[in-house]
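Human: We require from you a standard protein entry with sequence in single-letter code and fold as tokens, and nothing else.

Assistant:
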Amino acid sequence: MKRSWMRQAATVLLCLLAGALLLTIAYAVYVFVSFYRLEDELPLEIQGTADLGQAETDQPYRALSYNIGFGAYGPDFTFFMDGGTESRARSPQEVTEHVTGAFTAAGEAEADLLFFQEVDVDGTRSYHIDQYQMLLDQLGTGKAAVFAQNYDSPYLLWPPTSPHGANRAGLATLSAFQVDGALRRSLPIEGGLMKLVDLDRCYAKERIPVEDGGELVVYNLHLSAYTSDGSIAEEQLELLFSDMLREYRAGNYVIGGGDFNKDLLGNSPEIFGVSGKAYTWAQAIPAEVIPEGLAVMAPLDEADPVPSCRNADRPYGPDDFVVTVDGFIVSDNVEVEACAVIDTGFQWSDHNPVYLDFILQP
């Protein structure tokens, strides 16, 4: 009798293990089959551009970039991929509060070009709140608007207690000028399992007519952070810079803004007085990668330095690792008057917004 019971228990256990294995295999197949990349040079829809004018030379303008962190990050929010514990926003109310606060801070800067990253349009992690529509409702009046999907991830069952889920997010750009065309350009990404971590990547490219007959070509970008192969980050920069250089050599003005996931200052831990030994994800951009004719503009007030990003492995505090990864790229025919970080205290995101004051040289 005892042996019969043991055989039955072993059979049940084997069945459970076989079922778990089949479920694991089925889930792995689902994740790999569901993963896809959008085609390169994909035309993007432009909204609200009909009555806008051209950009002008010899006029002061402002560009602003802000990674809004899909509406999850308050100062005490921690993220599992940064070493923290949380994977999704704590409530729909917090998503709405954080996104509204971020867009309010951006609107107060009165920028002519606005680049936003990590804008969810349908995400488990952000309770399926369409943040692009929120942007249009809050700041879209009188501006041309473009959305470029950065990634559309399958449902990720990690962490087990509160899965990150399925998320579709991207780059949103607002322009006070007429936009004649917009493209989504695919960036290089890792293969294998790592593509499920870093997901798809792109930058958005828009063409704005200038009254002198040229064009202002603007780029909204969000480069990879979670890579195991450092060459991927350089490949992304090389593609971006080559595209920009081609436009500059054609006689156009070039401005790019976004989240580089690179230490744009080169020595952020030293500048902000924090230890960077345990945080290796934000490296400096190699000087040899930046071509002549283009310049990376890192926002910094040397008298009162403010970082653009915090590592979200723990609630924000004075001793946390901070870095400046958000900034701009300009061509030599763009005169830069100022480049700085707006200090929001990381109230609405794990990033602070950054701005660039510029003039198109005739």
